[in-house]
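G.,

No rush on this.
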Amino acid sequence: MNRLRKPTALRRGDIIGIIAPASPVERELLERGMREIEGIGYRVLVSQSVLARRGFFAGRHAQRAEALLGYLEDPSIRAVFCARGGYGSNYVVEHLSSRPLLNRLKRLPPKIVMGYSDISSLLLFLNQTLGWTTFQGPMVTREFAGGEIFYYRPIMEQVLGSATAGISIESAAWSLRPGVAEGRLLGGCLPMLTATLGTSQEIDTRGALLLLEDIDEKPFRIDRMLFHLRRAGKFREVQGVVFGEMPGCGGGTTAVEGLRDIILEALTDLEIPIAFGLPFGHSRQGCLTLPLGVRAQLSAQEKVTLTLLEPAVSLPAKPKPKGRA
């Protein structure tokens, strides 16, 4: 794991670039999401290829990778928000892992990149390969298009814009196994993380507070993925586990009822805190923005609280004073 490199804090008036690294995007939802972002006070720049279509991808793999790289290289763009997930970020990661593109990436200062679901592959790559803080957070054609009820704007603006530690997130999540632990936040969408096993981008969970979430998966598939991660040793040095709301998963009256036994059995030998129901990634409403790579504390008691122990971003460099004439 590289030393963590933090992007510059986002301020109102900054330019946010929008890309589609995975599945195709609907124009109407894109425009609604753009208006929401602009309504907060940011400016928006949209990749020319964002509405491209090629089968179940938003254009050719190389085109999607170059669109992202172009925005990361553009000094006028302060952050990159993903339009949606779906499927296809793994191909973008493969392209960016080639020596010529990777060398270009390594020369760049870190920049805010935000999304979730299939985008987890891309966020993990930028975090583990370059050491960047990356961000599990709302996407343009989903949460932003739906309006503020679907994302937690105060936390988003604090995480992306404040270079102070101590942001505390209380939730209505459940404590499946109580306790308090500290570690670096890492994780994302469960199938995407499992798919990294055996690749050069395999997730490194040592010392992590592991974030896991998914949507509309049958209980046996959740069990299979947790079993796979456990057999691969990915829970061995984890400090705590935080599950998302897991909407449509579990097959019970609620997701937590359907998945509680599966989770506790999969993690039976671990004496670590386990929480369920934090609204990040696929969530019913109030999607949180969580920075990957930063140290955090999980308190899973009667109430579940996640506290960021360090800022996720850095302050802009102060301009150098002009010399005397």
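When you get to it, here's the other one too:
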Amino acid sequence: MHIHILGICGTFMGGVAALAREAGHRVTGCDAGVYPPMSDQLRALGIDLIEGFDADQMALAPDMFVVGNVVSRARLPDGTPKFPLMEAILDAGAPYTSGPQWLAEHVLQGRHVLAVAGTHGKTTTTSMLAWVLERAGRAPGFLVGGVPLDFGVSARLGQGPAFVIEADEYDTAFFDKRSKFVHYRPRTAILNNLEFDHADIFDDLAAIERQFHHLVRTVPGTGRVVVNAREDSLRRVLAQGCWSEVSRFGTDGPDTEWSARGTHDAFDVLHRGAPVGRVEWALSGEHNQMNALAAIAAADHVGVPPAEAAAALGSFRNVRRRMELRGTVARDGGAVTVYDDFAHHPTAIRTTLDGLRRKLDGEGHRSDRIMAVFEPRSNTMKLGTMAAQLPWSLEAADLSFCHSGGLGWDAASALAPMGDRARVVDAIEALVAQVAAAARAGDHIVCMSNGGFGGVHDKLLAALRARD
């Protein structure tokens, strides 16, 4: 089969392309601004990429067009279609489907799908679960919205029945407004957490809760729903109905099966209060401890003993762009450290910075400063829906620098409660210059964005070296 993928350079659609190619299909694709790293990964797989969405791509005559949710029926100011290829597909009556639907029909059918859903931590928890199954000899397939360092690729078919997938609540396509995860039909589903997000497609938290309940409805009676016991929103989801085994994690309550005892980087895993394994790793933060409990509970459903799962997590190396160390620069007898992190929702920003603060304090580096460098780039943040939460999310940072380019709301006003601890800059070059000038020995600079952030990490490292 020849498939042509519209929007192929997105993380999810790029993963679909890699799986299709591995399965022996001919794969081509197009996107606006064919960009690395996904473009490099796809070309290495022998996938031809086309710049733009011109209608002349109809001449490729694929068996199926697979349409990403970046594609719409939008029109430019002059009235011409923004995606002329899509208009040509519709006019010709050519066969088309969504990425999640194609995946469900051609990859997931007949597999034991383990789906990881939640506002935060999906990529990390999916990677943890895949790694646990890998170390247990299950050779799982997976599709992750990032690149796990332990595998070096974002997707593979695998050899065994298990397939681990990051289950996104974002919409499927312009012609299918259901959440992507509704297509996956998991036997094991993790509901990691649930907050308001994606303000561009959801009116309120209740609308997202309904989509999560649609996912719960698809889990069979012999399946397992692994649920964060701390979340009121998830309690409301389950209250709408659940027909599967429920396994809760995260608290010491009477209904909670899985909990932890110890520090975030070395803790015992408890099952109904009894120790069943121990995790000792390099990761920090309570959020990663919670992610670990979810992965262990899900792996238990497919027969991996908790002690074995916990031991496997001791060698887990995390995911690219999750507090990924990008470099250090010597400074005044010490060093300035630069990290890259995917955090963009206020809760994720706070969790990331708080985890680093606790790690530094625990290592005796209480005087080290944390400098947060971030851009409100997600659709929700661009709308300004959560602007008022930014000062709360940045409490653990000693200094914060916000890139405000392209925003339709006043970032300076939103960050005014932080006083001189926050600075707003509208250009990358000026941002880099200000951060480099403010940096001193012992500083930890955390760059946070769900995009490329204009290459700010390398520019910062270069500026710091040049200043020295």
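The radius of gyration is 22 Å. The chain has 15 helices and 23 strands.

Enjoy the weekend,
O.
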